[in-house]
Amino acid sequence: MKVIASNKFARSDYEILDTYEAGIELLGWEVKSIRAGNINLKNSYCTFKDNELFLTNAFVSQYMLVEANETRTRKLLLHKNQLKRIQAKIETQGLTMIPLKIYFTKRSLIKLEIATVKGIKKHDKRRVLKELELAKEVQKYR
């Protein structure tokens, strides 16, 4: 598994509850651009529309001379029972779906790791940073 891009801020801004592996429906020029590493998952999220899951606001830069929408919505490919389970969680618990990373499989397929997440408050982030700082100090004096 070769990671192409990851959402660096996902782990610090959200509490990750469940992760899923999804295929992604792409155009030919998008595949070439992603293979070149020209994708950005920052500020992207997943939405439901007509019982299907879509990746919104993911930036795939243009490949060569192609004129196209770089942040178009892209359909995510999951099993129907997974979609129902995810949609039920999101609606009942008020969660969000975001992409964590995009990668190649052994068969050179492009897959997306998505997660159901819950936002972290600012004071929770500060508490985590303090705990990490204390752990570093303790480790330094051992």
TrEMBL record:
InterPro entries hit by this protein: SmpB, SsrA-bd_prot, SsrA-bd_prot_CS
Highest taxon, organism lineage: Bacteria
CDD domains documented for this protein: SmpB
Protein location: Cytoplasm
Gene Ontology BP annotations: trans-translation; trans-translation-dependent protein tagging
GO molecular function annotations of the record: RNA binding
Keywords attached to this entry: Cytoplasm, RNA-binding
Entry GO terms, CC: cytosol
SUPFAM superfamilies (alphabetical): Small protein B (SmpB)
Pfam families: SmpB
Similarity comment: family membership: Belongs to the SmpB family.
Function text: Required for rescue of stalled ribosomes mediated by trans-translation. Binds to transfer-messenger RNA (tmRNA), required for stable association of tmRNA with ribosomes. tmRNA and SmpB together mimic tRNA shape, replacing the anticodon stem-loop with SmpB. tmRNA is encoded by the ssrA gene; the 2 termini fold to resemble tRNA(Ala) and it encodes a 'tag peptide', a short internal open reading frame. During trans-translation Ala-aminoacylated tmRNA acts like a tRNA, entering the A-site of stalled ribosomes, displacing the stalled mRNA.
Protein name: SsrA-binding protein
